[in-house]
Amino acid sequence: MNIRTCSIFLLSLFIFCNAAFAVTDTNEILKNAVSTDEAATDAAIKSLREMRQDGLNALLAKYQNEIDHYKKTGERSAEWQRIARAIDRVAMQKDAYASGLYWYTDLNEAKTYAQKSNKPILSLRLLGQLSEEYSCANSRFFRSILYSNSKIASYLRENYVLHWKSVRPAPKVTIDFGDGRKIVRTITGNSIHYILNSEGKIIDALPGLYSPNEFIVYLARVNSLQNRFSPNIRSYQTNQLDWLTRKWNADSMKIGLKTEDLETPASAKPTALEAAPRAVTKSVVESPLVRSITIEAEAP
Q: 10-residue block means of pLDDT along the chain (300 residues)?
């Protein structure tokens, strides 16, 4: 064996050993992520977070059988709870087993990756945290109806960098039945999706609730235009305002609503009860509870 052949052999062996070590190391991290050893779990979660979407994908692939079993049976065994918690911590989203989406919680990190990947940023602002059970009602709707939708999740992974920020804690109320049973639920609050360019400048905003079809149409519309309008975001926003106004007028005519019938928005910050009628379907659910715990709403 000559020197050149020997060198090639040693280099190949070195590469093979490093690759084998990397695979072994990743498998160990994935096992530790669901360990009962809290220190090992924390270290593994940190490593997977640093791998971003690839780290989450690896964790989902590792425990796909367990995910499928839970979807079929709904059984919340101790093992499943560790797996679900690990997935949520890596994704920074509650019930991420259903969406498989990786979220940044640091906007600067999101901007850095957006610039590197040439993608816009979808930035969710909410009450509470997206990674906890009792974030605001809208964000829970997003998790269960929008992010878990396979078509939407796939589109977001391919076309957007995801980020969320909590504006403040979600207001909660506890109903005590007096026999040991309690119900904890959130009340009021709203959330908004901002679409940002890679520099963090706002391109557009999607407030409140959207159906899955409308949500993905909106995402695709903004994404298809954002590069063309990036030198002049105001031009895009002007065009979008014109499109929304025409759409609103057309929808209003269908139900016989005249624009002059609409109330002028209040200039001061309204109370929860005053704001409730703006979102009719939400107010049906929230207003009775808000009224019952609001002093100003009590009869004299």
A: 52 44 71 92 95 96 96 93 96 96 97 94 95 88 94 96 94 83 78 91 88 91 66 74 83 76 58 64 63 55
Query: What is the separation of C-alpha 205 from the centre of its chain, rounded to a whole number of angstroms?
Result: 15
In angstroms, the CA 34 to CA 176 distance is 34
Can you list the domains of the chain with their CATH numbers?
1-91 (no CATH), 98-231 (3.40.30.10), 263-300 (no CATH)
* Side chain identity, residue 12: S
Q: What token pair was written down for 214?
A: 């409308």
The two tokens of residue 83 are 């797996």
DSSP string, 28-95: HHHHHTT-S-HHHHHHHHHHHHHTTHHHHHHHHHHTHHHHHHHHHH----HHHHHHHHHHHHHHTSTT
Beta strands in the chain (DSSP E): 121-127, 161-168, 172-176, 182-186, 192-196, 202-207
Burial 18-38 (b: 16+ CB within 10 A, else e): eeeeeeeebeebbebbbeeee
C-beta neighbour count of 221 within 10 angstroms: 13
- Residue in this structure with the two tokens 């009450």, named with its chain if needed: 127
Torsion sign across C-alpha atoms 57, 62, 64, 70:
negative
- What pLDDT shows up at residue 180? 84
CA neighbours closer than 13 Å in the CB half-sphere of residue 60: 17
Residue 178 DSSP label: S
Q: Which tokens belong to 115?
A: 């610039």
Considering only CA atoms, which of 84, 52, 53 is closest in space to residue 67?
A: 84
